[in-house]
Amino acid sequence: MKKVMILSGAGLSAESGICTFRDHDGLWENHDVMEVCSTQGWVKDRQKVSNFYNDRRRDLEFKEPNHAHKILAGLEEAYRGRIIHLTQNIDNLMEKAGAKDVIHLHGTLTDLRCEACTGTFPVGYAPQEGHETCPHCGNKRLRHNVVMFGEAAPEYSQLHQAIRHCTLFITIGTSGAVIDIVPIAKEFKHSILIDPKRQKIASIYDPKSYIDEYFEHFIQKKAGESMDDMMAIIREHMADRF
Ligand code: APR
């Protein structure tokens, strides 16, 4: 059965006004990633890290899903059970667009996590103020539900599941800096890369120069402008019985 694996990154939310990490003027140009998104930074200054996520959570309330979020959310309905969307994004714009099954590989900004029982619970756009207690176990040591550098990302096992069971791989708006998309593309006969920028391959030992050379289709457009091209390929893929 034809199934689609979608891996999205910060570029998917860029047109909604959420800055990416590694583009010019991205989040990591304006913040030291090791101070606000690493286990060392968390141990060194919990309040600084919590403030960083409180600011991003507060801003998220006023962000709206863009055209690409809405098209991708619609795929769930159109191809029920045959779309696996894994996102590196911690925003809730896919959910605001109506999606229900998105797998958040790096956590969710609108939830907190208990450091005792690891249970999570929704806080919406409210700041973590320090007096909250875990609704599951009553513990007071809570944290942002975002995966930091230096700790495990438990949902990554679902990446491997998707690679095994899907027939078309689509990646939208990710530099591949954290999840290398080239080895995944090599596992698929059919694949689409959506990014307005051609990303060079970092390794000097790789015979190819650009990431898109490992993809069957390269749509060099912003996410919002690429949807018609992407949908045409998906429709053809899903209609083809073999
Ligand atoms: N549409 C599509 N792609 C876009 C757009 C857009 N409008 N604008 C930028 N891009 C592309 C950029 O060219 C780049 O390739 O999105 C990608 C963003 O790359 P990064 O900023 O590295 O973001 P991402 O790949 O999601 O980062 C992965 O790194 O810091 C960690 O946990 C963080 O989940 C994040 C991970």
Mind sketching the topology for me?
Elements: E1 4-8, H1 11-14, H2 27-30, H3 33-36, H4 39-44, H5 46-60, H6 67-78, E2 83-87, H7 93-96, E3 103-104, E4 107-114, E5 120-122, E6 142-146, H8 156-165, E7 168-172, H9 181-185, E8 190-194, E9 217-219, H10 223-239
Parallel strand pairs: 1-2, 1-7, 2-3, 7-8, 8-9
Antiparallel strand pairs: 4-5, 4-6
Helix pairs in contact: 6-10
The protein binds adenosine-5-diphosphoribose.
Residues 9-11, 14-15, 20-23, 26, 88, 106, 173-175, 177-178, 195-197, 199, 222-223 line the site of adenosine-5-diphosphoribose.
Characteristic key phrases:
9 strands, 242 residues, Rossmann fold, alpha/beta, three-stranded antiparallel β-sheet, SIR2/SIRT2 'Small Domain', binds adenosine-5-diphosphoribose, 10 helices, 2 domains
Structure description:
This protein has helices at 11-14, 27-30, 33-36, 39-44, 46-60, 67-78, 93-96, 156-165, 181-185, 223-239, and strands spanning 4-8, 83-87, 103-104, 107-114, 120-122, 142-146, 168-172, 190-194, 217-219. It is 33% helix and 17% strand. The chain has 242 residues and is of the alpha/beta class. Strands 3-2-1-7-8-9 form a 6-stranded parallel sheet, with helices on both faces. It has 10 helices and 9 strands. The longest helix has 17 residues, at 223-239. Helix 6 packs parallel to helix 10. The chain has 2 domains: 4-18 and 65-106 and 152-239, TPP-binding domain (Rossmann fold); 24-62 and 108-146, SIR2/SIRT2 'Small Domain'.
